[in-house]
Design brief:
There is one protein chain. This protein has helices at 2-10, 63-68, 75-92, 121-129, 154-157, 176-182, 219-227, 231-235; strands at 18-23, 28-35, 38-45, 113-117, 133-138, 148-150, 163-167, 188-192, 210-216, 238-244. By secondary structure, the chain is an alpha/beta fold. The strands form 2 sheets. It has a 7-stranded mixed sheet with strand order 6-5-4-7-8-9-10, with helices on one face. β2 and β3 (38-45) form a beta hairpin. α1 packs across α3 (75-92). The chain starts with a helix and ends with a strand.
């Protein structure tokens, strides 16, 4: 499981960092860490449709305790674990070579079939307006529309795709390994969204080519948005970036 490999790479990077605060909440679960170089905020999208009557096994919260459970079958533990991994990643990440751009700028004009993992209507609409052949897959039936495929079809259709734009929530719901395995033809594989705040080297050797995430540039503003359950409030404290794996 890729998350198991990522957690093993992250744990040594927690030295010198302290857990300041955290919250399992909507729309994002978040973890705030602090070290000699300052503070960093990591998030992971909370998927309420995945949450059942789990009991969290963490009795003494810490960065390490959260990260150790990043590959748990318990989605609450997995979400907190990924948010902690993202916080550590954001503390250490070097964005000097990052592009402060949008994921759309990565797509070559001659790309054929594009798979979008997770229904992102504004992005799908823009791609179709540019005459790209887009296949949108979504697990949550509440987010389906007339042009959406069930995620059950990903296994069969991904080998045909030339590019994949995947919501990084595939790390939370545990489908990332299957997506990487099946997207054998894709020359572009982008993990997008705030949940993709990972260090790019964590994905070295996989088919993932880019991370399109958000750097929190105003922690207080972003944190207030998170505590108020506001997408827009959180994103106002962020800046989009794209980094190559």
């Amino acid at each position: 499981m890729l998350l198991g490999e990522i957690k093993r790479k992250t744990l040594p990077l927690t030295d010198g960092l302290e857990l300041v605060d955290f919250g399992f909440a909507l729309p994002y679960t978040w973890v705030l860490v602090e070290g000699p170089e300052g503070r960093a905020l990591g998030v992971a999208m909370t998927l309420p449709e995945e949450v059942q009557r789990y009991t969290n096994s963490v009795t003494e919260p810490s960065i390490e305790a959260f990260i150790e459970r990043a590959d748990s079958l318990n989605v609450i533990e997995r979400t907190l674990g990924l948010a902690a991994i993202n916080a550590v990643s954001q503390y250490h990440i070097d964005l000097s070579n990052a592009e402060w751009a949008d994921v759309l700028e990565l797509l070559p004009e001659d790309v054929g079939k594009i798979a979008m993992i997770g229904n992102m209507p504004p992005l799908a609409r823009t791609l179709r307006e540019r005459d790209f052949n887009v296949f949108v897959f979504e697990r949550n039936a509440k987010l389906w529309d007339k042009d959406t495929y069930s995620d059950a079809l990903e296994y069969h259709l991904l080998p045909e795709m030339d590019a994949v734009i995947a919501s990084a929530t595939c790390l939370v719901n545990g489908t990332i390994d299957m997506l990487i395995d099946r997207a054998k033809k894709a020359r572009l594989f982008v993990l997008t969204g705030p949940t993709g705040q990972l260090l790019p080297e964590f994905l070295s050797g996989t088919r993932v080519t880019h991370l399109a995430a958000m750097k929190v540039v105003d922690i207080e503003r972003a944190l207030l948005g998170l505590k108020l359950g506001s997408f827009r409030g959180f994103e106002e404290g962020n800046k989009k970036y794209v980094v190559e794996v």
